[in-house]
Amino acid sequence: MGDAIRVAIAGVGNCASSLVQGVAWYRRRLAKDHVRETLGLMHYNLGGYEPSDIQFVAAFDIDRRKAGKPLETALFAPPNCTKVFMKDIGRTGATVQMGPILDGYSDHMAAYPENQRFIPATKPPVDLAKALRKSGAEILVNYLPVGSQKATEQYAKACLATGVSLVNCIPVFIASNSKWADRFKLARIPIIGDDIKAQLGATIVHRTLTRLFRDRGVTLDATYQLNTGGNTDFLNMLKRDRLTSKKISKTEAVQSQLEHRLPDDQIHIGPADYVAWQKDNKVCFLRMEGRGFGGVPLNLELRLSVEDSPNSAGCGIDALRLCRLARDRCVAGPIESASAYLMKHPPKQMSDTEARAGVEEFIAGRRTS
């Protein structure tokens, strides 16, 4: 086991709940059953760091049912609805602090039942930089709602002011924005982003199949990916003007695997609708139309059903450890291999095979970024 990786969380929603539950689950398996459980992990030991090395030392949220509460309580408060696979996560010692609201809340949510939506607290936000310093956090993981451009930038500025690394899990472009990336590089702070992939979700499956079409000589003529879900992410995304970066991120993740980009009207990737009873279950409907040998048409249809937030945490747990490894090695700015492997909109797109090899080289110390 390595030294403690001190992590702060921005946005105590379903993704945060799954990540914290997961760390506690692997820690319990090690402590009580003396088993280094590898189920569900891409890496158990990553550069000397195990899941149990992650400690959550600070958290920020805007919901009145979470702000002011212990993290281990807030993780299970409404409107969180992800699967509970580790209820007893123990005391973290972290209390959820009030974050800046800014554009982190969309007014259209007010029309929905309280157990399905955010209820913003009325208390003033804390000084983020001061709170991060006091907690001793080394890495901030950003799980704010899609469309939280201004709020994410506030957290990014706090990271720059305190030397804290950022793992940006949402489609607000920080690591992949050259101006922000340069600021982190100048400050000698490693960053991973943007917009986390699921461990086995819609984007990674779509990318893999797109690459398969290309590698097998099949021309892809048109494709769509439609997703439904019942968590606050899907409710938030009913406000379509919050989706600009999300659609760019998901579409570019697929387009990057093609030799020749599809015309804009021949590719549609994005959420379809909010279905409350699905809760954290995300269902993806995927169609790909192409032409093979002799120009003969073929098509592929796929339905994928996953619990959305644990799927995200499967990549998040590696992103945190890769970020700590980068800090140990004094890496500055975006970690290209980790971002390409774990994020939809990295600074540099790669094939998943190339990105995975890059991550393994980075872990082994044969690659600097």
Give the key terms.
alpha/beta, Dihydrodipicolinate Reductase, domain 2, 2 domains, 11 helices, globular
Mind explaining what this structure looks like?
The protein is an alpha/beta fold and 369 residues long. The chain folds into two domains: 5-198 and 310-364, Rossmann fold (3-Layer(aba) Sandwich); 202-308, Dihydrodipicolinate Reductase, domain 2 (2-Layer Sandwich). It has helices spanning 14-33, 71-74, 128-135, 149-162, 178-186, 202-215, 232-236, 244-255, 308-328, 336-342, 352-364, and strands at 5-10, 54-61, 96-98, 139-142, 165-168, 190-193, 219-229, 267-274, 281-291, 297-307, 333-334. Strand 2 (54-61), helix 2 (71-74) and strand 3 form a beta-alpha-beta unit. Helix 1 packs across helix 9 (308-328) and helix 6 runs parallel beside helix 8 (244-255).
SSE layout and pairing:
Layout: E1 5-10, H1 14-33, E2 54-61, H2 71-74, E3 96-98, H3 128-135, E4 139-142, H4 149-162, E5 165-168, H5 178-186, E6 190-193, H6 202-215, E7 219-229, H7 232-236, H8 244-255, E8 267-274, E9 281-291, E10 297-307, H9 308-328, E11 333-334, H10 336-342, H11 352-364
Parallel strand pairs: 1-2, 1-4, 2-3, 4-5, 5-6, 6-11, 7-8
Antiparallel strand pairs: 7-9, 9-10
Helix pairs in contact: 1-9, 3-4, 6-8, 10-11
